[in-house]
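ESCALATION

Customer reports they have been waiting on this structure for their group meeting. Please prioritize. Original submission:
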Amino acid sequence: MTSISADVVICGAGLAGISAAYYLAVDARITDIVLVDERPPLTLTSDKSTECYRNWWPGPGDTMVRFMNRSIDLLEKLADESGNYFGLNKRGYIFLTAEPEQAETFKNTAEEISALGAGPIRYHAAGRSTYQPSPPEGYRGLPIGADIVLGTELIRQHYPFLAEDVIALLHPRRCGWVSAQQLGMYMMDQAKTRGVRFLSGRVSDVTVDNNRVKSVQVKTTGETTRVSTKVFVNAAGPMVKEVGAMIGVDLPVFNELHGKVGFNDTQGVLPRDLPLMIWSDPVRLPWSPEERAELAAYEDTRWLIDDIPAGVHFRPEGMGQSQSLLMLWTYDVEIKEPVFPPSFDHAYPEIVLRGLSRMVPGLSVYFDRLGKPSVDGGYYCKTQENRPLIGPLPVEGAYLIGALSGFGVMACQAAGELLAAHVAGSDLPEYAPSFLLERYDDPEYQVLLKQMELSSGQL
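Update from on-call: job pushed to the front of the queue and completed.
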């Protein structure tokens, strides 16, 4: 057995673990850090995301809006100092509906989230509209808050490819996407220049003595390395529960498998400068009478002829001459144990494409020539109210940065900063108590939990 030492050992080299290492090294100036992962950095779930960010979060309370605003502030700071190495844009998200009830929900939700700190609301209708789509590049000097556009003619004036019955558009502005891989590698490189080391291997055990972290065992190729340390950070993504069990802590988290489809729009149905676009109504998939009869004949496919929940969405992917679209639809939220590599329903790409044709009818041109789109994805590790866990654990010297669900890319900056502040004993932001494990022991938080939903803030 090889023996080394470190001030901090971090388990997991995804965006959560790398952000923790970065902010510990840069802000807290703790540089004797070992980052452990059996895979190359950023290859388990961080590179499987849609890579989007937003400050558009529902209540109760303003916790998530403040947390995400801080994270985006830090993201923009990194973009400034790196020459926007990771391609941050601020195209926004666009939510669309053909239902009057949903249009009213847009207004109510927008006013609520605006009041929580996401920025002002601007209303637009025919004859009095100053609405402008977002520029495809850039992130400084652009609007925040959100725009609500009412009326089919005005909406299709700006987005003529949309369904003819769309009646309302909600465009939150402090949203967009980045290259998660380049963001992570930029932070990794900066952390390494300050002394952070990467150890390729699997954390197999954590030694705890008298309720204090003493060392971490890492299985590397052909041997075990014992790392003496007083601080252990669990940043293991979908494996945080398994790693938590190593120190005797049962974490209240679970995993959902979420997939995305990469698809080339070879016919140029969609412009390349669009925001992330989301259809907010339930969808009944378009099938021929023969296809519908075939699907209805079998119990395991019968659901495909009924309404499927709202939320199908897409965004352009890539630069230059790229034709790629990323397409997603979270209609299956079954709790699953993580398995790698994950597998996906072979029909998922067709289901998502047909769902998107409700929003963009022109995509129906691909029904009979879908080809072989790429499908990948990862696990959303979640708490019951879909808020993260960041801070100390009941074992002295043990910390957690996890349960970042589908918002790891957008949250990693504020999450890493917060984790570093906990470890270093620095001043904590107001929202810090909301992300502690011990919040579940707070009677007031138990009351708040009853107002939340499992899918709170999830597209």
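Sent to customer with the following note: The mean pLDDT is 95.
Escalation resolved.
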